[in-house]
Design a protein that fits this description.
about 45% helix; five-stranded antiparallel beta sheet; two-stranded antiparallel sheet; alpha+beta; about 15% strand; 12 helices
Length: about 280
């Protein structure tokens, strides 16, 4: 990519030499990171059409105090080279994901859990702000029902019989989930999208990236991602810190967490991303 998009990247990241750039592959975009800005290059045509809406959402989030940074749109458009590549330039959020195993230290785990709870509380407060609610998409009332129907229609033909049985159990768990639109929901709050710096020997939350799936919705979705990324014990600590240990929330978290692989597979199938599709369906074939 650094070779094929050299002209575009040298123009957009003119303060960085080719050897100073790094590339991160996400589900929807390839992200080329310079010293103080990043360039998002959509991996599919569908992802390219969503770039303007993504910029609008990020501008709205930049005005919200979440206690950490979010990427801010700096420029966007279509390059005028041979491939007319669409792009979006964002400010670079400092920091890096937590290193594997770091939460094995109780002192570190406690500090990180407190900051996750503070972030989720800030997202809940933002979800009550009228200007934020007007700027961000809302989770549809029939979203889970449509998701289940779409998985059956579009993905079941790619699964084994055992895979379809597993998927049916996971989809059945979605029945009866309430329609909640009470918080800003990141939608993909996995460890790779939460960035940290070290302050006083402990991780300090510096920012959250990759807001492609953000909605006004059910905070249980983000809690499910925290549990999937860091384990049930860590999630329990976050729930206790936030005062969210009620059984109804736990039921929603468990049901939503069970759909993560199917969500990845369905998005990848629609975007024509074979690699992400194979990963999402790995347990269903």
């Amino acid at each position: 990519m650094l070779e094929t998009r050299r002209a575009l990247l040298s123009r957009l990241l003119r303060d960085d030499g080719p050897d100073e750039l790094t590339v991160r592959q996400g589900q929807f975009h390839d992200v080329v990171m310079g010293s103080d800005r990043v360039v998002c290059l959509p991996r599919t045509t569908a992802a390219a059409t969503r770039l303007p809406a993504r910029a609008t959402v990020l501008r709205a989030l930049a005005a919200v105090d979440l206690g950490c940074r979010t990427p801010e749109p700096l420029a966007g458009g279509v390059s005028h080279g041979a491939d007319d590549a669409p792009f979006l330039v964002l400010s670079r959020v400092p920091g890096a994901p937590l290193e594997p195993g770091v939460l094995g230290d109780p002192r570190v785990a406690g500090a990180v859990a407190e900051q996750y709870a503070a972030l989720l509380s800030a997202l809940a407060r933002a979800g009550a702000d009228a200007s934020v609610r007007a700027a961000l998409p809302h989770a549809p009332a029939d979203g889970w029902r449509r998701f289940a129907a779409d998985v059956r229609a579009e993905l079941f033909g790619l699964m084994s019989a055992g895979g379809r049985d597993r998927a049916e159990r996971e989809l059945d768990a979605l029945d009866g989930l309430p329609h909640l639109t009470e918080a800003v929901v990141h939608g993909d709050l996995g460890p790779e999208n939460v960035l940290w710096e070290t302050v006083g020997g402990l991780p300090s939350l510096s920012g959250v990236v990759d807001w492609d799936e953000v909605t006004i919705g059910d905070p249980a979705e983000d809690l499910a991602a925290v549990g999937a990324g860091h384990g049930a014990d860590f999630l329990g600590r976050v729930l206790a810190l936030g005062g969210w240990s009620d059984s109804a929330r736990a039921t929603r978290v468990a049901a939503i967490r069970g759909t993560f692989a199917l969500q990845q597979a369905l998005s990848a199938y629609r975007d024509g991303d074979e690699e992400e599709l194979a990963e999402g369906l790995a347990g269903y074939r």
